[in-house]
Amino acid sequence: MKLRTKYALVTGSSSGLGLEIAQYLLEEDYIVFGASRSGTEIDHGNFIDLDCDVTKDTSVQSMFDEIGKETYGLNLIVNNAGIFEMGSVVNMSSEVFNAHLETNVLGPFHVLKYGHDFLIENITHIIHLSSIAGKRGFENVSAYCASKFALNGLIESCREEWKSLGVRFSTLSPGAIDTPIWENISDDFERSKMLDPDDFIHVFEMVVKSPPNMQFSDINFLHKSGVLG
227 in a domain, yes or no? Predict the structure, then answer.
């Protein structure tokens, strides 16, 4: 079963990498469903803006109900929505720590769970945005690191469960990327030593355009200066 029109879902499409991904896919002639809590300012005939809070079970179900009015299947699912806040273990509140787990782990879980009915056997490619922080711990980033470690476990388990469907799972684990999120974090980091969003899209394009028999279980990529510290 193959769709002549290519359909993609991108979560967290309102800003940062999600916005970049959505715009790139539109240029590649996808019909793009952009999911976010605040709305996405893209004016394009092939862009469908969806109101969705991925942390809420019912919100994700409603999102897929809307997608189902347009198509029965998705060629591409990009689990991008996430949050990132810094703070020491001692000073971080339980609420903030839990928010990382809800957005960065429970959110992708909901998308996978309710997106299952939209999988096209041997066609659908599921791409997750993880992080180098899902590979090692960093000072004052415990909540984010914990959520990305957990996300990677979720992806690996789901990949095994759905192996018979022939769908592809690719995980991108970049280092720091110079997006607006850093404007509210700290002035202590040299943004010139971060990847540019165009660098990310370079890798993303390679993954999306890879042969249909290929998946990338984990791609690590960094600025040439190394891990941001």
Answer: no
